[in-house]
From TrEMBL:
It comes from Propionibacterium australiense. InterPro entries: Antitoxin_Phd/YefM, phD/YefM_antitoxin, YefM-like_sf. PANTHER family: ANTITOXIN YAFN-RELATED (PTHR33713), ANTITOXIN YEFM (PTHR33713:SF6). Antitoxin component of a type II toxin-antitoxin (TA) system. NCBIfam families: phd_fam. Coiled coil: none annotated. Belongs to the phD/YefM antitoxin family. This is Antitoxin.
Amino acid sequence: MKTISYTESRARYAEVLDAVTDNREEVIITRAGHEPVVMISLADYESLRETACLMRSPENSRRLLDAVERLESGGGRPHELLPGD
């Protein structure tokens, strides 16, 4: 994760935005006397929100984590996607 100052982010704004959107970089922007902020792409933000929503319920969280564990230990079967999916 890259960290830059507010001043640098203003001077290189288009470059920073391109790095965030095109390369999926996360950029921390610091400001004197203020809390830093993180710049991420909208797609990454929406993904984080969706994950947080899915993990909010302890039962759903446990079910999803169990499924990931089964998949990583060799469980699961490959499936072909239907056209249009």
